[in-house]
Q: What sequence folds into this?
């Protein structure tokens, strides 16, 4: 799974920064028929988390109504220089993560 | 990615749409959405307001509809938005996404892109840290529904 992450590298203390991520994933709904006339098995990214300095700051529970190649944008308050970790799991059990360092000062 | 439907297939689907919806084994209705919404709220009172739900009023492609939601809140330890749930009326499942915020979010706002199987109301319900519930509804017109090209 390829993902494009957009987080500012630096921020002032207390600044609210936007985190954006675009993940390459088909988000198979389980309601679609394939070329063979059979239903394509469901496989969506169902859980997404953002940790900042090891603490969860944002989480999303995702359903098949989210478009293929899911895009998420959300915010976090910069308080200290720490790692921002984005973690997500799809229904094949594949877990992925992306890490960026946010420098505050 | 699936090919864009031609005008002909789009017209055929528009005509066949109501029939397909009726025959579809799993399809949300305003009633199943109401049930999902009640499961989220626990039957507690929901007040309209404080939530801003931005979805384009007219959408050409139901496969990727931009959705932005934000909730008025100071986002402090004492008062913050815990969760925002998005529901729809006509997709196979009534749930769309649930955003869980913390005081460290700084701002109770999030955006994504959703699938919409036809013109319908999209609901957003926010649960605050004090347990109060706030909502917003947007009516969206979709010209090419998400589940159409299969």
A:
């Amino acid at each position: 799974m390829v993902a494009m992450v957009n987080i500012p590298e630096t921020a002032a203390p207390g600044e609210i920064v936007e985190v954006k991520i675009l993940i390459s994933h088909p988000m198979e709904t389980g309601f679609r028929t394939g070329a063979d006339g059979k239903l394509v098995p469901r496989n969506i990214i169902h859980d997404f988390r953002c940790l900042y300095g090891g603490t969860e700051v944002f989480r999303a529970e995702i359903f098949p109504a989210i478009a293929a190649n899911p895009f998420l944008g959300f915010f976090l308050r910069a308080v200290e220089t720490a790692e921002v970790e984005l973690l997500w799991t799809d229904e094949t059990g594949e877990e992925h993560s992306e890490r960026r360092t946010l420098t505050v000062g | 990615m699936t090919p864009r439907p031609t005008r002909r297939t789009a017209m055929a689907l528009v005509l066949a749409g109501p029939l397909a919806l009726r025959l579809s084994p799993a399809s949300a209705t305003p009633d199943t959405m109401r049930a999902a919404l009640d499961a989220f709220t626990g039957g507690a009172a929901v007040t309209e307001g404080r939530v801003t739900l931005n979805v384009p009023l007219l959408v050409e492609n139901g496969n990727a509809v931009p959705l932005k939601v934000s909730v008025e809140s100071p986002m402090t330890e004492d008062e913050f938005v815990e969760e925002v749930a998005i529901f729809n009326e006509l997709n196979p499942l009534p749930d769309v996404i649930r955003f869980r915020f913390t005081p460290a979010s700084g701002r109770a706002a999030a955006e994504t892109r959703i699938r919409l199987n036809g013109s319908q109301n999209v609901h957003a319900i926010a649960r605050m840290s004090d347990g109060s519930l706030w909502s917003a509804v947007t009516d969206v017109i979709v010209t090419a529904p998400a589940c159409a090209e299969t």
User: Anything to note?
Assistant: Chain A touches chain B at residues 16, 29, 31-33, 52, 55-68, 70-77, 79 (CB under 8 Å). Residues 3-26+42-104 of chain A form a domain with the Immunoglobulin-like fold (CATH 2.60.40.10). Chain A is about 0% helix and 55% strand. Chain A has one domain: 3-26+42-104.
